[in-house]
Structures are given as C-alpha cells and as structure tokens.
Amino acid sequence: MDRLDARQYKERPGSGIAVVLDNVRSAHNVGSAFRSADCFKADQIWLCGICATPPSAEIHKSALGAEDSVPWHWAADTMEAIRALRADGYTIVSAEQTTESVKLDKFTPRPGCKYAVVFGNEVDGVSQEVVDASDFSLEIPQYGTKHSLNVSVSIGIILWQLHFQLC
After folding, report:
1. What's the chain's Rg over C-alpha atoms?
2. Residue 112, exposed/middle/buried by CB under 10 A (0-12, 13-18, 19+)?
3. Distance (Å, rounded) from C-alpha 138 to C-alpha 133?
4. Residue 58 is part of a domain; what is its CATH number?
5. Has residue 1 been placed in a domain?
6. CA nearest to 31, candidates 151, 159, 157, 166
7. 3-state class (DSSP) for residue 94
8. Taking the CB of the first residue and of the last residue of the chain, which one, N or C, has fewer CB atoms within 10 A?
9. Which domain holds residue 57?
10. What's the total number of domains in the chain?
C-alpha cells in the first residue's frame, strides 16, 4: 500500500504542522491524536500537563504504533511548549470557540508558515492562558444543537484541513 515505516516518516520533509495537547486526560484521545498526526504528516506532538505519554498500552490501543512514528515531547506546562514552538517559528493556534475565532472553513493558511495547533482538555477546552498567548483561535463550524466535539474528532478535522491546504 506504499506506506512509510517509522524511520521513513521521521526522515520525510516537514509539513509545517505541529499538535499540542493541553491537559488531555484520556490516553485513548492521546492515542487518537498520534494516529491522526501520523495520517496527516504532522511534524511533532507536544503532550502537556496531565497527558499520558508513551509507552502506554492505552495510547497504543488507539494509536496503533503511530506513537513510534510521530516525534513527541512532554512539557509540564503547555506554555513551555508554546514558547518552544514559537521560538521554532510556529504560529500558535488554539482550537477553541472564542468571540474572535476564525471559522475553519474561512481560514486560509499563509504559504510557508508553520502552525502549531493546541487542542484542549475534554471538559475545559484550551486553557485561557494558552488562548491568550495564541496568535489566533480556529473554530470548527457546527450546525446542530451541540457546540463541541470530542477532542480526537476535532484533531482529525483540523489536521485534514491544514494538510489539504498546506501540503
């Protein structure tokens, strides 16, 4: 099926997309983040705060080995990750509903720009400190009675859109 192995994945050119998990409490959601990050060629994942880290049977159950292909880092505090990514040239984006958020279907990434997208805790979302430190927020338009998605679903939707537009 012409798939990359973990070594080839790490050697490929960067996509300009990084994922940051801000206190995501479910190891299954962390595993799903790895799997979506691998699928859409993310450069790296930052696991912050209470996030589970590999090796973990629960992460592996949903990541299916993607935790071995996608480079990852851990930070005790999400702001530490934000500072490191900003220093590496990433634009920081919170996946969050705010009064000034940009709707995902209206967002056009700048060519050559790198984006680090922060996804938040299953209950509280992205912390206000991180939203305030972000360059802007992206919001997935929703048309039903609910105004939130599972974090792993949000990751898949946003990564697909960014990959589609940047790669």
Report:
1. 15
2. exposed
3. 14
4. 3.40.1280.10
5. no
6. 151
7. strand
8. N
9. 6-166
10. 1
Report how far residue 36's alpha carbon sits from residue 158's, in angstroms, rounded to the nearest whole number. 10
Residue 43's alpha-carbon distances to 66, 72, 114, 127, in angstroms, are 12, 9, 10, 23
Residue type, 41: K
Looking at the whole model, is its pTM more than 0.85? yes
Q: Which residues pair with 55 in a beta bridge?
A: none
Per-residue pLDDT of the chain (167 residues; tens, 9 = 90+): 778 888 887 888 889 999 999 999 999 999 999 999 999 999 999 999 999 999 999 999 999 999 999 999 999 999 999 999 999 999 999 999 999 999 999 999 998 999 999 999 999 999 999 999 999 999 999 999 988 999 999 999 999 999 999 88
- Pairwise CA distance, residues 99 & 29, whole Å: 27
Tokens standing for residue 130: 């991180």
Structure tokens at 133: 């430190």
Helix (H) or strand (E) holding 31: helix 27-39
| Cβ atoms 39, 159 nearer than 8 A | yes
